[in-house]
Amino acid sequence: MRRIRTRRAPTALAVVLLSLAALLLGTPASRAATASLTLEAAFPAPGNGWAKVERYLDTTPGFRTEQFPSDGRGDQDGARRTYFGTGEPSSGRFLLYSAAGWDTGGRATPVLLVHGANDNADRAWANPGESGACGAASCPSTGLAQYLAGTGHRVFAVGFAHKHGDNLLQAQAVGDAIALIRARLGVPQVDVVAWSKGEVAARAYVSSVRPSWGRAYAGDVRRLVTLGGPNGGLDYVYAHGWSFDLATWPACGGSANAPSPHLYMTCYGTYTAQPCLGVLPTGGYDCYPGQRQLLARWDGKYGVDTTAQDWWTTYYGGQGFYTSGQGIQAAIDAGSLIAPLQQAGIPPAVRTYLLAGGSADIPGVLDENRGPSDGIVFTASALDTTGIATVGGTRLLSGLNHLELAWAPEAESQVDAWLG
Fold first, then answer.
1. How many CB atoms are located within 10 Å of the residue 261 CB?
2. DSSP-derived secondary structure for 283-299
3. Which of 346, 332, 356 is closest to 391 using CA atoms?
């Protein structure tokens, strides 16, 4: 059904009728995509500039509850715990956020925002200072969601069940969110803006890289904009492993929700194992599958941090003085998605834009300083166009770090310009 644009905002009744018509008269593909979705809960006026938040369940066989660290560090928190109804939801569940103006914005193509690892749609897109860490000394109280809504876009965001979850499962959730938006608004396509790890999930969807049971790309993305996306992969965890362990390993006092490159580590004289924290699945544990899927080797270009304890065995595998692990290549072989995504390619009809940061200075974070980066992702990786058939544009914002790419004014204006 073609949506007729007028200068007047539609009445509430008109919006309801249009939504029902879209659901009833949508294409067979859109009806099939939403047939497996169940609306489980809705939260009106949730704050942070959102008009509503909804929780959906995809009943397609194949989804599962992924493993969470037993100490709760990876559980859903804050408002998201309320939205999901639990701290450890099944990955068949996702949140669909609708920004103010989702039903009145004048831009023809709606926008879906896809957040990154250890994050949520509230902090990433609507309230960058929610957790107290936004990549700058002073954090804004609004983000890209409000900015795009203010320029006439109809804005939505997806919220994932697992903070470091399997990107193939999250790619299916991206497809589900797009199908819901299309059905609600009666539009053929959606623009997708994906930040950090979210870029891999979004790219997996448009490239039809999926589980054997998963649905293929439905041709419903007009433009894909990536913000600090690891298009060429990253090896951050393995290159700076010792410091990562000190921040994550419980026996050493660590509590960060991040993976470790090691299986064993000596803390205060005791050699301990933490299999759930490992990047590789070990002993039946696999709590950070999405991080393994981001890996690629950069030691040939930028080397390894040779000042770190056990740097050789951390990166290449083996028994070090204080740690033991299998090394990055074993983790890549166990399921990195970078090469498969580049080989599958993004379809020519999806015009793709890549935004990178050039400031390797993130307060409170161990910065990636082996080469030009945004503090997490190498600039060369964020701007890697391998497998992208139609590059709409690339840009390096040298003054922004990885976190600022999602909310800084110059990044917001660039995204708006690319969306057109």
1. 29
2. TTB-S-HHHHTTB---H
3. 346
